[in-house]
Write a structure and sequence with these properties.
The chain is of the alpha+beta class and 98 residues long. It has two helices and five strands, in the order βββαββα. A three-stranded antiparallel β-sheet has the order 1-2-3, with no helix packed on it. Strands 4-5 form a two-stranded antiparallel sheet. A hairpin with an 8-residue loop joins strand 2 and strand 3. Pfam families: DUF3039. It comes from Haloactinopolyspora alba. This is DUF3039 family protein.
Length: 98
C-alpha cells in the first residue's frame, strides 16, 4: 500500500515497519491566489484582460491573467509604493536626471 500526502510518503511494508519521509517539494496548484493581493494595472488593460483572458503586467512586475474580484484583497505593497512615488514625482534618486 502506497499513500502520498503533502510531501510525505507512507509506505506500509509489513506490520510494525516505519514511515519513510519524502522531503521533495510538492508543486502547488499555480493559481497565484496564495499572494492575496490586488495589483495596480492600467484600467484599459485590466478590462481587456478580463474580457479576453490575456495577461497583464502590474506596476510591481507581476504578470498574470486576472480572474478574481480585486476588492477582496489588500493592495500589493510594492505596487502601492511605486504608485505613490509616481504620483509625487519621487523616483528615489538624488534629484538629478540621467
Amino acid at each position: 500500500m502506497h499513500v502520498r500526502t503533502l510531501g510525505r510518503v507512507s509506505t506500509q511494508l509489513s506490520p510494525g515497519t516505519e514511515t519513510i519521509e519524502d522531503p521533495r517539494t510538492q508543486p502547488g496548484s499555480g493559481d497565484g491566489d496564495e499572494e492575496r493581493f490586488s495589483h495596480y494595472v492600467p484600467k484599459e488593460k485590466l478590462t481587456e484582460a478580463m474580457i479576453n483572458g490575456t495577461p497583464v503586467i502590474a506596476l510591481c512586475g507581476k504578470v498574470w491573467v486576472p480572474s478574481r474580484d480585486p476588492q477582496k484583497y489588500p493592495v500589493c505593497p510594492r505596487c502601492k509604493d511605486i504608485w505613490a512615488k509616481m504620483k509625487s514625482g519621487d523616483d528615489g534618486g538624488d534629484g538629478s536626471k540621467s
